[in-house]
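Notes from hallway chat w/ T.B., transcribed later so I don't forget. T.B. wanted the structure written out for a chain they're using in a teaching module, and asked if we could keep both sequence and structure tokens in one place. Agreed to drop them here.
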Amino acid sequence: MSDIILKFWPKNDVAEIKAELLIEQLSELKIIGEESLFRGNPAYKSGIDFNDYFEPNLGKDNGYINSLYIKIAESDYGVIPGEGDFEYIDRNNVVSILGGDGTLDIWNRMVEMLTKITGDEYQGGWELL
């Protein structure tokens, strides 16, 4: 299991919960696939067009991409560097890529799509678990 996770969240605090909107639109765009479980927790399998939003593009029928799961959370914590340690922050409308290990390097298209779906400016990054 990797000790880092790729997450996407609004740059500014957002009070309105938009998880259902994200699920609906990401499903329609085939970024997420069927609902499933990842290590016993609800998630979605990566959709057929998932890798179109990331680089390197490893193709549609790639074992690594097919092994990824996506979690869409109304609220989820984040880890940021703090004074001498890490601090935890709470954020709404978080999209997490589960099962990855740092292979996805560029995710500008994903950030743009999440921003377009929600109307909130998104950012992404690798975080410690």
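Follow-up for T.B.: The mean pLDDT is 91. Might be a good example for the class.
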